[in-house]
């Protein structure tokens, strides 16, 4: 495992200072892990993502001790499922988010969150070329920061607090239709960025 | 598959956010299994989740977690069971993969429970907010949809129905909220079988009889 074929740029990736790594670099790193198990690479991913995964789980309302346990399970599954990761399909953060989301929900509901299969996932008609997903993620990040506060709020309440449309409506004391139209407006803006990029290629 | 009716943006985003009820998420995942257009939108919404995850301030992790994981990693590879090997996929092609986890066997062999002549249901095996079930409605029957204060998803698995919005065939999804009143009529020669879910509050589930109230036939 310590001997790498010539030309492999894993060592270059390791040289990168963690603080300088953009989302694209994490995706490359996880992409390497997908084709070849490597504990050193995994340790780097772990130190970046585990504290964020735990922060996500805590935000969902899970008690700290349980969040710690769940984080360990999620990060273990990052290693065990790494071979299913395709950098051209999703950024590392996206892929790890879906693992964290599914496992948290499974634990909280004692029910498996229904998912469409990963096989189907790979058959998606319009496939962005390699590298674009990571760039897209950076642009989505910029776009989320620019959303009007009311739209960002419903998105945070959905993703971080796991609240349904009805819950959000009750919390904010606004009609269900307003919650949905805020989410739609936000989604519309993000879609323009997402779709616009693909049409250029 | 030629699909004409798709998921609402708000529904898709909540699916990716993990904030849909079990029943609603099942209907969404089942439509996604049919529909590459919505799948692509779901991928964007998953990416939003990734971006939000990345934006979070780090929470302290106990020092020994990495060591504990590395120790588990060293367990023999054979202990890892691939999910594909766990579930033999001899499933009925009429049943979308996500639903296949909860419905065993062909749709015609389910233990359908009759509500009134021409209308039967099969409940999903969980309790929770709202309704989550398969509905089977005979040709020519009409469903009177109630007013409610929540979302309602209807995915067609067999046959078809029409309402003011249009015609819904296999794979199509009606993604409605309380803004819309509609009166679907089954217009196929065979029974129409749909997977439905609502996220309405509890009082809705107690109005069981109101969920499907055939206009004709009794
Ligand atoms: Zn669709």
UniProtKB/TrEMBL annotation, chain A:
Domain RNA polymerase sigma-70 region, residue spans: 45-112
GO molecular function: DNA binding; sigma factor activity
Record keyword Transcription regulation present: yes
Keyword line: Sigma factor, Transcription, Transcription regulation
SUPFAM superfamilies linked: Sigma2 domain of RNA polymerase sigma factors, Sigma3 and sigma4 domains of RNA polymerase sigma factors
Pfam annotation, one family: Sigma70_r4_2
Domain (RNA polymerase sigma factor 70 region 4 type) ranges: 138-190
PANTHER family for this protein: RNA POLYMERASE ECF-TYPE SIGMA FACTO, RNA POLYMERASE SIGMA FACTOR SIGZ
Name used for this protein in its record: Sigma-70 family RNA polymerase sigma factor
Organism whose genome encodes this protein: Amphritea opalescens
From TrEMBL, chain B:
Source organism, top-level taxon: Bacteria
Annotated SUPFAM superfamilies: RmlC-like cupins
Domain ChrR-like cupin span(s) in chain numbering: 108-198
Pfam families, sorted: Cupin_7 (PF12973)
Entry-linked CDD domains: cupin_ChrR
NCBIfam families: anti_sig_ChrR
Name of the protein in question: Transcriptional regulator
Organism (species): Amphritea opalescens
